[in-house]
Amino acid sequence: MRTIDFSPIFRSTVGFDRMTNLVDTAMRTTSNTAAQTYPPYNIEKLDEDNYRITMAVAGFGEDDVDITVTDNTLVVTGKVSKDEGMPAPRYLHHGIAERAFERRFDLADFIKVQGAELVNGLLHVELAREVPEEKKPRKIIIAGGTPKLESKAA
Fold it and tell me: 76: burial class by Cβ within 10 Å (0-12, 13-18, 19+)?
């Protein structure tokens, strides 16, 4: 396996800890490929500032899925709660995976979760970019006239 040493880049930067963590996470591979592909999901860009993550969570109810946001990371976890006292089903074919999962999505700065809904086995998480006014680009007006230089007596 190849490893890439990013330490020369990170030695001369300040405040890019999040980027360091993103690169480390992206470079890390796990042996469990099933965990990386379940549940399947789509990420859509609806317009300039709105996004949607859609996850296929067949067999999960609203009480079985938990969505949390911490430090620019969206975490979606799911665990099917089994009914007590109900006999376990006898499957002839078991193709719907109801196993527990955890999906993490790294969110860019200023991305906020607007809401989520579970419809027909699809979980839709609505996201929006909300850039504060002080961070938006602004036009600087150049004042006319000649610059005045002060001369100092020697």
Answer: buried
- Cis before 39? omega within 30: yes
* Three-state SS at 36: helix
Cβ atoms of 77 and 125 within 8 Å: the answer is no
Residue 6 has pLDDT above 90, yes or no: no
Decide: 37 and 97 in contact? Cβ < 8 Å.
no
Q: Which domains does the chain possess?
A: 39-133 (2.60.40.790)
DSSP state string for 54-78:
EEE-TT--GGGEEEEEETTEEEEEE
| pTM metric for this prediction | 0.67
Rounded to 5°, the CA angle 62-66-67 comes to 115
